[in-house]
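User: Fold this one for me? It's AMP-dependent synthetase/ligase domain-containing protein.
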Amino acid sequence: MVNTFSPTQNASKNAHIPSFDRYDEIYKRSIEDPENFWAETAQRIHWIKPWDTVRNFDFVQGRIEWFSGGKLNACYNCIDRHIENGHGDETAIIWEGNDPNQSRKFSYSELLRDVSQFANALKSMGVEKGDRVCLYMQMIPELAVAVLACARIGAVHSVVFGAFSSDSLRDRINDSECKILVTQDTGVRGTKQTIPMKVNADNAVTATPSIDHVVVVRRTGEPVDMNANRDTWWHEAVSGVEANCEPEVMDSEDPLFILYTSGSTGKPKGVLHTTGGYLTYASFTHEMVFDYKPGDIYWCTADLGWITGHSYIVYGPLANRATTVMFEGVPNYPDFGR
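Assistant: Here's what I get for AMP-dependent synthetase/ligase domain-containing protein.
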């Protein structure tokens, strides 16, 4: 039996897209007048320098460019500009752990501090604009911090789903030639209390010549082996580090992140997402599809290991100054009442 739930009249009236007619109107304009449609849509984010061309498509050559010549920084759009507009004390991220009694909140100002410190820590390890950084973690706050820290300094993050094996991790690191791996000691998810994240990482990096450093988040406190010449605890890496890190000026078509396909239909393919077009789309669709309005607390149940998590846990919500929820566990643990 299928139940259909219709929105209340009040909800429909106040929605960004209150009717199918309105949806058709927006869609029609995007098709018939794409230059002006996307130029107006892109105004929702901050540009250091406006673009020269909205779009440049060549389907024969396979070249697709958005907002060519434009300059911006994704991290600045997700954090700094909100603080500059007086919203630094508003909650950016609510993290709820696998244990219902564990939770943390980060204001936009606190998030900027943590992101800037880790960004500077990455720079101290030799990470430069264009370098790739692999992130292999469960749904913990440091994952979002690391994503934004990479975006801040122009490093290209490659998040690998925390349930993948060491072989899958190794292959993705080698394909994108990552310089740094960020992981955690062990993970928890539902009834799984000792997911061997660091062990998997150690097994992977035995055959990843591009990795110079491994940064490890102490999440559970479980004992793990640490290679003194390669491994660094996250808390030690950021201890005493300057909390000011100027955002790198990025071209609209500069890479923001690489995210690999699952590999269910063959060798995983690294899909490269560039900065300006992606951030515009993530911000726009987060507001329209989920009918986000200022003050809403927004929860996307996806994992950051997939594109849904990138777009609708980090980049879309934070670009829109939302309060976004990160959930480490599963909805049926410790029971279905959660």
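One thing worth pointing out: The first strand starts at residue 53 and ends at 58.
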